[in-house]
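#data-curation
PF: Archiving a pair of folding outputs for the training set. Convention for this channel: one message per protein, sequence first, structure tokens after, nothing in between. First:
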Amino acid sequence: MRLSVSEAAKRAGVSVRTLRWYDEIGLLKPSETTQAGYRFYDGAAMASLQQILFYRELGVPLEQIGRILSAPGNDRTEALRKHRTLLLMKRQRLDDMLRLVDETIGGIAMYDERPKPTQADWEAVKKQYAQEAADRWGNTEAFLESREKHAGYTPEQEAQINAEMEEIFQAFGACGDPEGQEGQALARRWQAHITRYHYNCTDGILACLGQMYENDPRFQENLDKYGPGTARKMSAAIARLVRK
């Protein structure tokens, strides 16, 4: 399998912009990128994408999904099986709705006495899987709050949140003095962004994030795309802010 970015997006039911964003933040890298910049995805990459979509369905934030995918205990096959279960239940509900419309248009009542999954059934299974993810990968107040918030966001809202985040990262990349007024203002803005859209970002949580940005190679690589030393600048600005 060798799919272009547009083919991969179409097959997965997401936008090309989403795949490019996942690439930028290091969540899902293409299996191949040509010298001309064209992205291609193989079977392994598409399987990882399915995992991402499964956890997004459960409302797990992207940052947490990244940690899940890279964790030694991550069972990709099990996640895909659960995603398949949710999709089958969703398809059954849609089939039932289409059948009802057809019957109404045709004026013919057709009854199928076989048990069918209801909206409540689907929500119950989704809730069960979400709780399993929380129990295994981060059953914390911040995790649960973030999951609840993201479950209510529309794709347009998610895109706006991502755009605001990128704007902050770009400002950090261009910041000349992370421990000065400019850097401190950006650190406070970043903390407010996390609290508003994800979870209550206390000074303690922010301090841990700041250390992770500089010490975790994956985060450092992604942040430094916004300018050399962006991860270090964010870490320094945050460290200075929480020391006040």
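PF: Second:
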Amino acid sequence: MKLTFVVQRYGAAFVGGAEKYGRTMASGLAAAGHDVSVVTSCATSYEDWANVYRPGTSEDDGVTVHRFPVLAPRVNERFIPLHLRAADTYDVPLWPWAQERWAQTMGPDLVDVAGPLRTLAAASDATIFIGYHYTQTLWLTRVAASAGATVVIPTAHPEGAFHVGRVGQIFQHADRIICLAPEEQDLIHDTYGCGEKIDVVPCSVDDVARPSDGAVAAALARYGVERDRYAIVVGRVDPAKGSDDATRFAAEYRRAIDPSFSLVVVGPGGEGGPAVDGVVPTGFVDDATKDALVAGAAVLVQPSYMESFSLSLMEGWLLERPALIQARSRVLAGHAARSGGGLTYRGYLDFEAALATLLTRPDLARELGAKGRGYARREFDWAKVEGEFLSVAAAAQQVGAHRLRRQRSRTA
């Protein structure tokens, strides 16, 4: 098949879930012999979308990448108040003009992209948009739908911005919608009533090679922690990702229960912040170091409220780490229930009881880790995901072709 992906950032350097998912799918399908293109920005930072890469066409691991410049860096002093207002749409909806302004300032707002995208969409079997609330999805699904079949992969979770009326338009223009988990499917159908278009196709997860004892020991020595005496969080340090809860709960657990307990936080944004007793922020690290730190941990904590899949949880399970999971995320709670690979919590007392259980019951921890690995290997294997993804793309191609024929007949 000939497929075009549209994603806000693209490249091996990006660790965000949507970007990593997009590159995994694009490069994996290209390796399988499909003709794959990507439309993306020249930006590297989601905080301001400033242009870094040169615009133009290049090749990345068998994928043709078309980069377009961003109109202007985002001015967060203007954007953040508008975004906070958008997030409060449950009671008072944004006016239509404000919704359009929000859609533009969210970013990245790409320059001179409509014409080239329309040409690519017309030549592709399907054009696939990743991320529901980025400007390229909010504005360009209609452009692609005017020329060919479209698939939207919203990576959505419950938040105020998801209920901005402008978001519903992307589902109207989509021929098919891919959700990464059943809970995301329920959210989209309940909010926008388009369940007949939705398929659940999860992200594929490559197996993680178990680090050697030497690699684990070196990583632990580097950060001053002891094997099986710490928990680990992997992901962007951001209150929306639950990082504040994790550090606060870990500090309280250390004070009240076990002064030798530590929490290692792996991800961009944590270094340079205020020191918290017993919390070790590493900042961004390479995959080998991350895997070694996960392998040496007693527990992997996934504290995020806003997840549509959670690659870090799966990678922890592939290393047979038991998980301590934020139950307020419906997707994460669903993974916990389906896998049997972890315990859940909502507040500190739940966290304390679950963590103490895992740290004092190594037999239970091993059992949960083994169940988690089985779940990740069984449900998110590349061959399984690839087949399901291509089936959806083929269905979108048929629906899109029929839709365009009807439109042309009406205007003839």
